[in-house]
Amino acid sequence: MELSFQTVMSQVMLGLNNGVFYAILSLGLAVIFGLLNIVNFVHGALYMLGAYVALLGYTMLGPLIGKPDFHLNYWAALIVAPLVVGLLGIGVERAMLRRLRKFDHLYGLLLTFGLALIIQGVFTNYFNVSGDAYDAKPEALEGAVNLGFMLFPKYRLWVIVISLLVCFGTWFVIERTKLGSYLRAGTENPELVKAFGVNVPLMITLTYGYGVALAAFAGVLAAPIYSVSPVMGSEMIITVFAVVVIGGMGSIMGSIITGLLLGMVEGFTKVVYAPASSTVIFLIMVVVLLVKPTGLFGRES
Amino acid sequence: MNRLVWIALIILGLLAPYVVYPVFMMKLLCFALFALAFNLLLGYTGLLSFGHAAFFGSASYITGHLVRNSGLTPELGVLGGTLFAGLLGYVVGSLAIRRQGIYFAMVTLALAQIVYFIALKAPFTGGEDGLQGIPRGFLFGLIDLNRVYVVSGRPLGLNLYYFVFAMFCLGFWIIHRTIHSPFGQVLKGIRENEPRAISLGYRVDRFKLMAFVISAAMAGLAGATKSLVFQLSSLTDVSWHTSGEVVLMTLLGGVGTVLGPLVGAFTVVTLQSKLSSVGSWITVIIGGIFVVCVLVFRRGFVGELARLLKRSL
């Protein structure tokens, strides 16, 4: 097969586009895991929920509040969806996850799995499994940009840029600011941090809220690219789990970089041997387990 | 447990098809065996596998293929499916035990997803359609598993039922023997305190892997039998929904109890058949049960009962 520089680069760029989603989602999982010690299975469902907030805000919110002309536009959805989902997450943390703190971590996984089933089930009942198109993509992001080696859709470029900003912004806050130092200290030794007068339970709640808000943010970004469907989250979350196993959840930067790289590898595989592109991440996981069982950036606790 | 309870259960199983719809009963037995196999891992070794559908489903496909396309007799087909699941269990287990706790669950889920992709894409699995019209055939080449007897006006496929019941008893017996052997005691030791088991000189990884293989093979036995009952192997059998369902059955019945998975499978299978009219709301209900179970009912039915009676069941 002819491997021109252009085909490879365009697939790798599209792969990077997937990669930023992996990065945001695995970053959220890592932040949540660090402080709450649970694997947030509902992350995929909340990513889907974020996309639906954008879609329904555009199509149904107006008629629902009696103003048929009102549409929640894309930019507003980017703010509203994370807020809605973040608040929901805060509720879930306060009402449910908090009660599980003294039990085995596996219960957190099972509880969030149940929540994922509920959310996915509800949306499957009301919406088409094959998905609906979100056509409120802002005009400013229509068209393509010339990157020198290829024409790249402007919207996808925006997704890559804003996602990287969010990811590295989060990294910066956690690793370089005072607030982040509380967070990291809480990850290491919550009891001690409590003794210093930091409100650790509040910190945990807000961290969970922020983590799931990230998932919703990714969902809104994804809405104009992929079709919005009730199963978009469950497909995503299993891949992200593999990403997380490969990278290890110990490091924020690690999970970002792993997500980006794997997205590009996936894109590259599409050019070389397309049928393997849906499994390549899982196969890499197998190799990593064989070679470095703790994950690329992992520390085994 | 009391010998009388066992005898009562066996008699109940033998008489059941005369009272209950046999297909329902057979579905129940298959899923109960699946849950029992899963419980060997979660309840007695402390390992949460989130990919057990891979073994259940792949055995179902292999058996279906052997019986339908290679023309093997059903018992050889089931044997083939079970062995394949065991082998797959060895591969998946060897990889998964390299990580602990929460990562173990994610690794098994991700590996099971590879099996799902293969089932979706491979040429011999029938893709979205699955393998349909799997013949039941003649057991040992002699006994017709399709044969229907008319008992007091009801047509009953008793040959098939007793074959399924025999497979269930075989699987239950193997799991029960495993749990109550010195090997099973070591597994419980690992569950309770892994570092101590290591310092006592046990090669913990080997024990975990062995438990994983047995559990996978028995899940395979359940899936293989299921493919003969429904004459179908489908993507549902290998999907993560099925992996989640078996977790729920075990959790609901009581993790780490002998009878819990039976009770859990009974509850979930009954719910599914009673609520088949609500369509996909069933997913919501299953999810709701999960949440309630984890929040307030972590011991499950049998576990709570055992606590009330102050004895182990």
Question: Can you characterise this structure?
Answer:
The complex is a heterodimer of chains A (301) and B (313). With 301 residues, chain A is mainly alpha-helical. Chain A has helices at residues 5-36, 43-59, 61-64, 74-95, 105-126, 154-176, 178-188, 190-195, 200-222, 232-247, 252-272, 280-291, and strands at 144-146, 151-153. In chain A, α2 (43-59) packs across α9 and α10 runs parallel beside α12 (280-291). By secondary structure, chain B is mainly α. Chain B has a domain at 20-238. Chain B contains 14 helices and 6 strands. Chain B has helices at residues 3-19, 22-45, 53-68, 74-96, 101-121, 158-179, 182-192, 194-199, 204-230, 235-238, 240-253, 260-274, 281-296, 300-309; strands spanning 131-132, 138-139, 143-144, 149-151, 154-156, 232-233. In chain B, the strands form 3 sheets. Chain B has a two-stranded antiparallel sheet. A two-stranded antiparallel ribbon of chain B has the order 2-3. A two-stranded antiparallel sheet of chain B has the order 4-5. In chain B, a hairpin with a 2-residue loop joins β4 and β5. The mean pLDDT of chain B is 89.
Layout of strands and helices, then pairs:
The complex is a heterodimer of chains A (301) and B (313).
Chain A: H1 5-36, H2 43-59, H3 61-64, H4 74-95, H5 105-126, E1 144-146, E2 151-153, H6 154-176, H7 178-188, H8 190-195, H9 200-222, H10 232-247, H11 252-272, H12 280-291
Antiparallel strand pairs in A: 1-2
Chain B: H1 3-19, H2 22-45, H3 53-68, H4 74-96, H5 101-121, E1 131-132, E2 138-139, E3 143-144, E4 149-151, E5 154-156, H6 158-179, H7 182-192, H8 194-199, H9 204-230, E6 232-233, H10 235-238, H11 240-253, H12 260-274, H13 281-296, H14 300-309
Antiparallel strand pairs in B: 1-6, 2-3, 4-5
Helix pairs in contact in B: 2-6, 2-9, 2-11, 2-12, 3-4, 3-5, 3-9, 4-5, 4-9, 6-9, 7-9, 11-12, 11-13, 11-14
